[in-house]
């Protein structure tokens, strides 16, 4: 597809139809990714409660890796979509290459330092004495694949922001399907246990990376090339502006999981009960991620539409797309929340058939179901702010859920209510984040007039 054809499609095709087309691949990506993350939990869950807890502990490392990938991918991708909307392809090519190579370099830094200090890292992430050996075995292989995981996330975002979600889907879904296939083979047939799950994830991430990189050279997409690597100060500042909200969101997710794991160790009880608390919360986190996949995919389908049209000055289309996505994802989340509330014990039991895990997990999942529909507004509001270059409000909103609310609530409620505090901290934090997001969203809505002249994207 030529640049002019892509431009005309992004600013002239009916918004709802366009978002639907772009959202289908991204929804599939989110669903399959959430399913293969859940597959790790499902297969490892049959090994024992401590092994299940190890997957939850390592969720913090995964959040750090994702934070780095999203920082560079969304930081450069936001700019790329606006630059293409303003018909500045050369700037887009330089930004895309800069974002990709910086992402790979930072992935290497994570791999090296994480491997050198692997046991202290596992303890810092919240491992208990019984979980530690399993967590270390899982961490080792994830760290080896960190450069490819960070780069895959960056490439996925770069392709999506160009409106090339189909190439993004091929790379991400292929890796996810391979992971699901390798999990039982490595865990049970080769008898590698938790290490087998990590190896399956590492191999699938490398394969997905290769396919995503190949997609950058198809369909008229912006090419990734060393000659376009140009980390100028101005370009790095633009990456930081576009990527900081994602970095804060993912980084704070990692911090909150670490705080939660350490809070669980402080509630008292036997080692087995503490492991059950960590395992239960890990299961609920995976279920919530899976439940929100359609909503997140729809939001990611909206991002290139938002970026292109904002760059072209078509604020009316940005507003219309926002309304459509909030209404559609909100309706879907109401249905999902109802199912999570009714079938909470069965859902938790599916991942780990342990009485303590089920009792703790079902209450936490039902509490989460009450606020789940509010996430449609929170996520779409944050997405719109970030994609339109409003870095400060987007960063505040990204930081708020964990930084302003969840972590302080954990520290307060766990000391007062014990396990109940762990179960209630996240849904209360989600409700508070929704209240904070309302004025941000309304202000952004009012700033965008029905039509405006084209936004001039700076060149370097």
Properties at a glance:
mainly alpha, 460 residues, disordered C terminus, single chain
The percentage of residues in β strands lies in under 5%
Given the helix and strand composition, which structural class is it?
A: mainly alpha
| Shape annotation | globular
List low-confidence stretches: 450-460
User: Tally the helices: what do you get?
Assistant: 18
Radius of gyration: 21 Å
> Largest beta sheet, briefly?
none
Structure summarized in a few sentences:
It contains 18 helices and no strands.
How would you describe what is shown here?
- The protein is an all-alpha fold.
- The chain contains 18 helices and no strands.
- α2 packs antiparallel against α12 and α4 packs antiparallel against α6.
- The relative contact order is 0.14.
- The C terminus is likely disordered.
Fold topology:
Elements: H1 3-12, H2 15-45, H3 49-85, H4 89-116, H5 118-124, H6 132-144, H7 146-161, H8 165-189, H9 193-215, H10 233-265, H11 271-291, H12 293-311, H13 315-342, H14 344-351, H15 355-371, H16 375-387, H17 391-417, H18 419-447
């Amino acid at each position: 597809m030529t640049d002019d054809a892509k431009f005309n499609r992004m600013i002239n095709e009916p918004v709802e139809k366009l978002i639907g087309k772009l959202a289908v691949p991204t929804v599939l990506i989110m669903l399959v990714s959430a399913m293969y993350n859940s597959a790790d939990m499902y297969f490892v869950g049959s090994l024992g409660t401590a092994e299940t807890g190890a997957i939850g502990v390592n969720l913090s490392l995964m959040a750090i890796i994702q934070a780095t990938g999203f920082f560079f991918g969304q930081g450069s991708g936001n700019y790329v979509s606006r630059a293409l909307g303003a018909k500045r392809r050369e700037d887009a090519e330089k930004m895309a290459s800069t974002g990709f190579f910086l992402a790979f370099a930072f992935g290497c830094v994570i791999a090296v330092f994480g491997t050198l200090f692997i046991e202290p890292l596992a303890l810092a992430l919240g491992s208990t004495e019984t979980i530690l050996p399993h967590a270390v075995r899982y961490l080792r292989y994830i760290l080896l694949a960190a450069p490819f995981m960070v780069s895959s996330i960056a490439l996925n975002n770069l392709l999506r922001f160009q409106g090339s979600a189909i190439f993004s889907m091929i790379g991400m879904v292929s890796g996810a399907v391979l992971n699901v296939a390798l999990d039982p083979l490595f865990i049970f047939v080769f008898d590698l246990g938790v290490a087998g799950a990590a190896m399956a994830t590492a191999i699938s991430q490398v394969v997905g990376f290769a396919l995503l990189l190949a997609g950058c050279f198809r369909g008229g997409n912006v090419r990734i090339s060393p000659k376009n690597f140009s980390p100028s100060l101005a370009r790095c500042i633009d990456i930081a502006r576009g990527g900081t909200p994602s970095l804060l969101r993912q980084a704070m997710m990692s911090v909150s999981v670490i705080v939660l794991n350490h809070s669980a160790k402080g509630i008292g009880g036997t080692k087995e009960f503490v492991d059950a608390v960590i395992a239960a919360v890990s299961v609920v986190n995976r279920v919530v991620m899976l439940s929100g996949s359609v909503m997140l995919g729809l939001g990611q389908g909206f991002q290139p539409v938002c970026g292109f049209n904002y760059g072209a000055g078509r604020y009316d289309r940005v507003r219309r797309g926002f309304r459509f996505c909030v209404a559609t994802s909100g309706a879907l989340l109401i249905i999902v929340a109802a199912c999570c509330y009714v079938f909470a014990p069965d859902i938790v039991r599916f991942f780990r058939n342990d009485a303590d895990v089920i009792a703790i997990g079902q209450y936490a999942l039902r509490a989460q179901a009450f606020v789940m529909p509010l996430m449609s507004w929170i996520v779409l509001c944050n997405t719109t702010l970030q994609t339109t270059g409003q870095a400060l409000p987007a960063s505040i909103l990204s930081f708020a859920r964990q930084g302003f609310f969840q972590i302080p609530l954990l520290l307060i409620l766990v000391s007062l209510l014990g396990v109940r505090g762990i179960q209630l901290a996240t849904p209360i934090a989600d409700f508070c984040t929704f209240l904070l997001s309302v004025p941000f969203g309304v202000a952004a809505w009012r700033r965008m007039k029905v039509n405006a002249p084209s936004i001039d994207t700076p060149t370097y």
